[in-house]
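Notes, p. 3: input format for complexes.
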Amino acid sequence: MLQIEQIPCLSDNYVYLVHEPEQGLTAVVDPAETAPVLAALKAHGWTLTHILNTHHHFDHVGGNLELQAATGCQIVGPAADRERIPGIAQTVADGDTFSFGTASAKVFDVPGHTRGHIAYWFAADAALFCGDTLFALGCGRMFEGTAPQMWHSLSKLRDLPGDTRIYCAHEYTQSNGRFALSVEPGNAALVARMREVDRRRAQNQPTVPSLLAEELATNPFLRPDSAEIQQTVGLVGAPLHEVFGATRALKDNFRA
Ligand code: ZN
Ligand code: FE
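Output follows (256 residues plus zinc ion):
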């Protein structure tokens, strides 16, 4: 089994250490910065062997070159964006398997937030590292993609087993949830989840990771088939990517 450690970085990023104990491998997912990652490695007595990047944004690759210089680790990232990932040595793309000692991850291309965004799914450990594509109660902004493309990406993640843990890259859950309640106020599971989110945030506890099953029940960006959401965006019976796109557009202009 993999050991996964969450490291808060910058103002609201989550960086993850993924440790494979049998061969002693350790990866860091989307190192926003260097110092907190080195401190966490030291605290666990782990040696960094890999960096796994989901996309090129600075708050995901900011520690790449310093960590590589400090440890000689191998940097893995999206083939479609290889020129924008500092220090990249191994490219992966949709359908590839990334081998990590006795563990392995299936790679999904999930463009939309950026054109080269990928996600890593460690199936045996029920862990998904999805960067800024899927968030707890939200999804990433579409900086470099269209609604149909982003919906196609989210659909791939929607099909994973419900017990999959969603290790996303930001603590945005509370503000995402305020928006979610505005488009689907009649969703009792969402109302209950937000109570728990508010409680945790009041105690400064993380709300990430979540379970995919919770997201399927409460995340408006995975629920364009909800009658209430379709009514909210005025697209009853429309294709799901259109309902998704309208929901995303509402969120872009939402002020909680
Ligand atoms: Zn990003
Ligand atoms: Fe980000």
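The pocket of zinc ion (ligand 1) is lined by residues 55, 57, 113, 132 (CB under 6 Å).
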